[in-house]
Predict the 3D structure of the following.
Amino acid sequence: MLRKWGLRFINSEMSGAEALSAVARQAEQLKLEGNNCFKKDRIGAAIDAYTEAIVLCPNVPVYWTNRALCHRKRNDWSRVEEDCRSAIRLDNRSVKAHYMLGLALLQRKDYAGGVKELEKALELGRGADMDSYMVEEIWQELARAKYLAWQDESTKRSIKLKELREACEEALCCKHVSSMPLNEASEDEIPDSLAELMEQLQQVFKKAAQEDTPSEVPEYLCCQITLDIFRDPVITPSGVTYERAVILNHLKKVGKFDPVTRQPLRASQLIPNLALKEAVRAYLESHGWAYRME
């Protein structure tokens, strides 16, 4: 129910424009009240305030994302999803809406949907502010989502490979037994020919499982400072490639020079290393385990 004190501003003497303006002011006041309650961890009161703001002005995306943030605080992911979808219908460029929708989809194991929304949030976040703390947070969640997606698919592949290997082993044994004379058949001995076929079969399945077996990421795909796989590599005039956020942080806090060559360096001189970025993308495409964050 809308608060009676708020309705005093809206009366029959107001023109249509004045009434709409009064409603908008009241909704903004409710949003501020909700923000204040959220900061004090009064989540229920914050939800009530944002809900009233939505009733007054349902076409303002931030009211929906603010309420979604409250639901996220309560781990009420179905309502997070509902509010984020409402916000996106109003503003498809809302970073927070795509971000939280991605998190909500991951909660119900919709990895493909979650990854899609997080990638959209990352794209929009980088376009708005490359150095934003939220861009790093989104990347962390995106990497986790892609690792979970790989883990899910990897588990399914492992089960299928195991079933197929066992079926092949059984078929080999049956074929070998059926082709042997009765007086030579023995349950206690495995003939050399069959053992050799079994070994070859094991090698085939071992190779098939290689892409799902974690190993070391090639050095050329990793930043020289963090030793982590590149996300957004940039190259300096000296020819050294760094992770963008890392080298920008170095230039800001340490000094205007290349940490490896010690040559003078400015942020404006950094150029995206598109070839290496594509190489990283291709590597991660077939080695999903490399998304794992330590």
Remarks:
- The mean pLDDT is 87.
- The beta strands are 233-235, 241-243, 271-272.
- The longest helix spans residues 133-179.
